[in-house]
Carbohydrate ABC transporter permease
Amino acid sequence: TSFKTPEDISTGNLLSWPTVVSGIGWVKAWATVDGYFWNSIKITVPAVLISTAIGALNGYVLSFWRFRGSQLFFGLLLFGCFLPFQTVLLPASFTLGKMGLASTTTGLVFIHVVYGLAFTTLFFRNYYVSIPDALIKAARLDGAGFFTIFRRIILPMSTPIIMVCLIWQFTQIWNDFLFGVVFSSGDSQPITVALNNLVNTSTGAKEYNVDMAAAMIAGLPTLLVYVIAGKYFVRGLTAGAVKG
């Protein structure tokens, strides 16, 4: 449909092949959503990288540092995984207002990092507990400190689970609509919100080719991530399944 002309759509079946292939729908769609597309890039990339990095450190600390209250801390993080989006909207909105980040892309980055930490920490912690304790003890005997072990031994072994977190977080953040529509406005909105506004507009003639082209533009990044890195996601999920 995105390659059809409006006339072709109005006179034929939406599922039929276009009689004349036209790229005008894509041109109009990109002109409408290009700014919001880059907003999503500016939100997703830093949020994915920050939440993955902090999750790796959290998972390492919870796996190899048995401090008092570590199990309680991990339990609270697990509880965060089961909190629905709706329960954090009001406190998050209040917090962003106090921080001066309301209706900004930076505020959305902050929200996605905080909400995603429970999941990334869980992924890394479950992966790290499968690493033999003898490896850590040997590194300590050689004089390696706590964070030196993390940087030089644990992180190089973490590629599978890093890929899982990167793909998981990218998918969740890029496809998010609720946080985007609540915590952003105007030119700071992500592409999911812009797509909703475009499709549901009630002014002017309905251009289904533009709507479908915009939907394809919004969905292509996630599709490309899974096509290119999907195999690493499956490997990472099973990499820490066996201890020892």
About this structure: The radius of gyration is 22 Å. The domain at 33-239 is CATH 1.10.3720.10 (MetI-like fold). Residues 24-64 form the longest helix (41 residues). The chain has a mean pLDDT of 85.
